[in-house]
Amino acid sequence: MLRAGKLKALAVTGAARLPLLPDVPTMRESGLVDYEFNAWLGVLAPAAASKATVDRVNESLRKALSDPALRDKLAALLGADPRVSTPEEFATQLRREVASFQKVGRELNFKLE
Fold first, then answer.
1. Are 58 and 17 members of one domain?
2. Domain range for 77
3. CA 64 to chain centre
4. Assigned domain for 77 exists
5. Does 5 reside within a domain?
6. How far is CA 16 from the centre of its chain?
7. What is the pLDDT of residues 44-65, one digit of tens each?
8. Could you give the number of structural domains in the chain?
9. How many Cα atoms are found within 13 Å in the side-chain-facing hemisphere of 22?
């Protein structure tokens, strides 16, 4: 839609401009200095999964995403910058995201019904 001129991108929500949209500023560049939101995809396993299994899946993902053809395909389809973290880094990211959304929910007085 952007390429066809039917939509105009005003800003991207991450901390940095997207390689796919280099001329589109970030929200911070557009004046919303405290705004940053990054979409991401992750792979989760049952809590009972062994460390060996988690490490094996993580290494398989790391190997797959080291293929430039797959990285290019994901970038074209999703506008993604594929990267693989460690299971520990991902767990830390999840805890940080949950805490951030809980804070927003409290500030806005959201209630689950």
1. no
2. 51-107
3. 18
4. yes
5. yes
6. 12
7. 999 999 999 999 999 999 999 9
8. 2
9. 1
